[in-house]
Design brief:
7 helices; mainly alpha
Length: 114
């Protein structure tokens, strides 16, 4: 990865995710709150409370959630005039598979399921 891309990724990682982004990212991956709690090594109650705005999680918890999502292929879009959001990383962007290989949708969940 180019040095400038490293700086962009590091600066984005410092921005905490929102409860809406958390729910949307889980929806993109098709995972439950329990699945996310296991993947991020955080309590289920922390995710429940975060997504329902009952309480704000610690910064370490937000960082763990973000890492789990990013490991599974989620990109977070910051508030940038068009609004915050999430999307899945293009698997072809990071590594080109051999021409006859096919990527299954389970590969997108690899970071969550491992």
């Amino acid at each position: 990865m180019a040095q400038s891309q490293d700086k962009i990724l590091k600066s984005r990682n410092n921005v905490p995710i929102t409860a809406r982004q958390c729910r949307a990212a889980r929806g993109l991956l098709g995972i439950s709150q329990r699945d996310l709690a296991e993947a991020a090594s955080v309590s289920l109650s922390a995710i429940l409370d975060f997504e329902t705005a009952t309480r704000s999680p610690r910064s370490a918890t937000l960082a763990a959630l973000r890492r789990a999502f990013e490991d599974a292929g989620v990109l977070f879009i910051p508030i940038n005039g068009g609004g915050q959001g999430v999307r899945l990383r293009d698997p072809d962007h990071d590594a080109k598979p051999a021409p006859k290989e096919r990527r299954g949708k389970n590969e997108l969940r690899a970071g969550i399921d491992d």
